[in-house]
Amino acid sequence: MSKKVCGTNYPLSICFIVVNEFCERFSYYGMKALLTLYFLTYLHWDKDLSTAIYHAFSSLCYFTPILGAIIADSWLGKYKTIIYLSIVYVIGHVVKSVGAIPTVGNTDVHIALSMVGLILIAFGTGGIKPCVAAFGGDQFDEEHTSERQKFFSIFYMSINAGSLLSTVITPILRSDVQCFGGDCYALAFGVPAALMIVALVVFISGSSLYKRSPPEGNILLEVCSCIGFAIRNRWQRAKYDPPRKHWLDWAEEKYSKRLIQEIKMVLRVLVLYIPLPMFWALFDQQGSRWTIQAARMNMAFGNSFSIKPDQMQMLNALLILVFVPIFDLIIYPLVGFCRINITPLRKMAAGMIFAALAFGAATLVEVNVVKTVVDPAPEGSYLMQVYNLAGGNVTVKIPGSGLFPEQIPHLQDPPEYVTLPVVGSGQGQTIDVTLNGKTSEFQYPVEQQKAYSIILYSDTGAVKCELAEDFITKNQTGDPFLRFFNTLPESINITVGDLVFTAPSGLMSPTQPVDRGEYSNVNCSLQACSNLNLGLLDFGGSYTFVLMEESGTIVPYKMEDVKANDVHIAWQIPQYALITMGEVLFSITGLEFSYSQAPANMKSVLQGGWLLTVAFGNVIVLIVAEGAGLEQWKEFLLFACLLLGVFIIFSIMAHFYTYVDPEQLDKVYMMNSSKEEDDHDDKKNKKSNDIHLVKAGQGTRL
Q1: InterPro entries annotated for this entry (predicted)?
Q2: Which of 333, 407, 477, 545 is the most buried (most CB within 10 A)?
Q3: Would you say residue 236 lies in a domain?
Q4: What span, in angstroms and rounded, lies between the C-alpha atoms of 323 and 529?
Q5: Coil, strand or helix at 381
Q6: Is 30 contained in some domain?
């Protein structure tokens, strides 16, 4: 007799399973929340490749559960499958963490370790996905059905708790802890690795308490064999035998009529699954495109608190815990009170509408976000802006260009970059500067598709012209960029936070990212420039400070090369709320529908089919990200329109779908089969019924 939690009918073994699931989900979502920024800032991939690899990994995570289910049901059993694949999982996390250590090899080594780690993690998390929840259900005695159902509610809460906490904590470890001179991805990936080790140790610790069921054969393999036999048999005998009512009926020579009828029911549901990947194509972009969008927004809440771009994903886990009871206790009863028939398929269709609206909201946000982004110059051209620090108004003329017809005032920020053609090989570009009636000619080298600042300043009465190449790409993490141009006769060091900027005389310091904040008391290596006031360095901005000496004091003149993000990250809340409403209507309802429309011993087949829709949804994003080449707002709008099109197709399919009651099928076959055979089938499938019934309400966090 298994040990119980004191005074209850709950097996003590489930405590180990719930803790294991919490730690495993913490490790998975904590690692996954960082992936997009890791690809962008550490591996230095562009946003399209980063998005493609992110969704390739997500897709693999939902293809591998089929493999895990086959291994568990046909070979090792659930317990050993969880143990062995968790070891693979741990190895993947460790390899991934080592790949994030800058001192371990070069970029190629980091990429190789990262990809190997992600593949191992995908096989680990996907392989144990279909096993852990079912193994927990196995721990209960047959008569404790209500306790088993409550266990799955606790199990699902542990999933969301792990997801919520990890997406808050790991971005803080990434950005607030500095190691190897930058964001500490090694630590941020290392903590999820440690949690996965804890998950494995906890699970093994409960070994003596577990009730283990031996492998009973995989129904998925039997279904595939039956379908394959029917196709072959029809192909070989169609010319000689009379036609049959359904193509699956060609399998009657080898398989029972009951199995064939059950497969027909399953296939009717799987046909409805065909349009579903498009929903997941939108849903899973929370960790990729939406994170990239968040990094180009203002993330400050007041002066003392700001959020990380990769922390916004925690809104989905938080909101689903809020929305599920609201829908179950308020919205659904109100709709029913209005005598509106809300069938499962109608709920799923409504979920698609909410997801499309979410991407409509994301499109509106993106249109405003890109207003602070500087587009690179087209081929054969370059960008240029002029800063006048020469002590008076200047006239600037560029031969062959009608730009700057008016005088440029002293200390006025240029409104925006201008685009100029590269002359010849790019050498000897000419600019004429007139100050106080005296004209000076300067030449400077430029390259196409780059951006430059021309800094005019006065030195002993003469105007001087310096060319500086600008870094116009916004920081992928959202932090501002900073640099200093030194007009002084000697080199200078400026300490900003934990960073030291070195600006030689007449030259620019290297550009470095700094934390967003108010810098009113910055020190430098010269006594004349102590306590420099740099003001607010805001999210997404790129700043140049020109250091000039005036009346014995060094003054920093602030120039904003790239404007700071002016769209607040709170504008992402509506799109997260809409996508989460869509998840509640689509995902949870879809699993409940799948359960209700399939025979008891086919639940695992539909569960596998459902997970494959998630996998193919990520494949769609991968293809669009790499192949479409659209501006981001156009891509968001494309996805919204595609889902609306899929909504129409799915609604038509749903209109012609006839709901069935698998229990009626069971009754028919019970009348035509011996009592002994039915008793055996009932006993075999009863536990599967209970497990899959409650799993149907677990959403997508599995």
Answers
A1: MFS_trans_sf, POT_fam, PTR2_symporter_CS, SLC15A2
A2: 545
A3: no
A4: 55
A5: strand
A6: yes
Judge whether 233 lies within some domain.
no
Give the domain extent around 392.
Answer: 374-473
Residue 415: pLDDT above 80? no
DSSP helix/strand/coil, 160: helix
Q: What is the CATH number of the domain that holds 328?
A: 1.20.1250.20
Encoded amino acid at 285, one letter: Q
Contact call for residues 139 and 10 (beta carbons, < 8 A): no
- Give the pTM: 0.85
In sequence order, the 6+-apart residues with CB closer than 8 A to the CB of 616 are: 59, 277, 280
389 and 289: one domain? no
Question: What is the C-alpha to C-alpha distance for residues 32 and 20, in angstroms, rounded to an integer?
Answer: 18
- The pLDDT-based confidence of 677 (bands split at 50, 70, 90) is very low
Q: Cα angle vertex 290, ends 153, 330, to 5°?
A: 40
CB distance 260 to 252 below 8 Å: yes
CA nearest to 416, candidates 481, 472, 465: 472
Please give the full DSSP string across 136-201, using - where no structure is assigned: HHHTS-TT-HHHHHHHHHHHHHHHHHHHHHHHHHHHHHHHHSEETTEE-HHHHHHHHHHHHHHHHH
- Residue 217: CB atoms within 10 A of its CB come to 9
- Is 148:14 a contact under the CB 8 Å cutoff? no
Residue 287 is classified by DSSP as G
Structure tokens at 679: 């008793």
Q: Where are the beta strands (DSSP E) in 445-491?
A: 451-459, 462-470, 481-486
Cβ neighbourhood burial of 507 (10 Å; 0-12, 13-18, 19+): middle
Least reliable range by pLDDT among 22-31, 164-173, 415-424, 561-570: 415-424
Q: Do 359 and 384 fall into the same domain?
A: no
* Type of residue at 265: M
355-384 confidence digits (pLDDT tens): 999 999 999 999 999 988 888 888 888 898
* φ and ψ of 386, to 5 deg: -120, 130
Residue labelled with tokens 């006594």: 527
Residue with tokens 């982004």: 373
